[in-house]
Phosphodiesterase (Shinella oryzae), 268 residues
Amino acid sequence: MTKLIVFTDLHMVPEGARIIGLDPYARLLAGIEHVNRHHADADRVIFMGDLTHRADTPSYERLRDLLSLLTPPAAITIGNHDHRTRFLETFSHVQPDEDGFIQQVIDFDDCRAVLLDTLFAPPYDYPMSHAGYLCETRLAWFDRALAGAGGRPVLVFMHHPPHKTGFTGMDAIRLGNEDAFYALVLKHGNVRHIFAGHVHRTIGGSHRGIPFSIFKSPVHQQPMPFDTPDTSLSVDEPAAYGIVVVTPEGLQVHNEDYEIAGREVDIA
């Protein structure tokens, strides 16, 4: 049974910097140590974008060195807070696809994992590039990735949710071409689950008949009121990552609030 660990929205910053008083480096380090301690047998640790907060080279360098501490192998894609060129300059071991996008296919015995690059850039023209987009080239790549699954169920990992989640501000900067994305998903009929980040909340459900899961950040989280238009508002809540286990009968999705996770047990 394939086991995948999922981190999203790392928002790494240069040394000494903070986000709402929180240290992204320390929080991610604690998450990596937690994974190494309890999930060293994971088949992959998948990182779903917003690797840095400002897409600066020092932050990418700090993140690269931090991820080298992982015991399981890593797979990475990018989000709206990232910059493809700067990312690739620092993460020189990451191989982009034939068109330069940070996406890949990973085949396991019981599933195919597809990582999509949903960054709407270049040009890095904010606020528009905070929304996600899959251009025709990436849609064609996705089409081939689904077509070549060879009977395996497909798990899709992407930064931007491909549909509304109920949060007004974040929904305005979700994936911009939802219909084109779901046209391919429904055409092939082999996508078992969609995983995303971007919203900094734990959300689960289904859309157009396809189950989805969205995970929280290791750093700062989205305030819970749905009608908040300001996407920069953040709260300090426990850091988290996701655990995905493929079973013979389907799929299990867990959320690990590792910052407050206790391992000492007693009889309730």
User: Anything to note?
Assistant: The mean pLDDT is 96. Residues 68 and 116 are 22 Å apart (CA to CA). The two ends are 31 Å apart (CA to CA). The first strand starts at residue 3 and ends at 7.
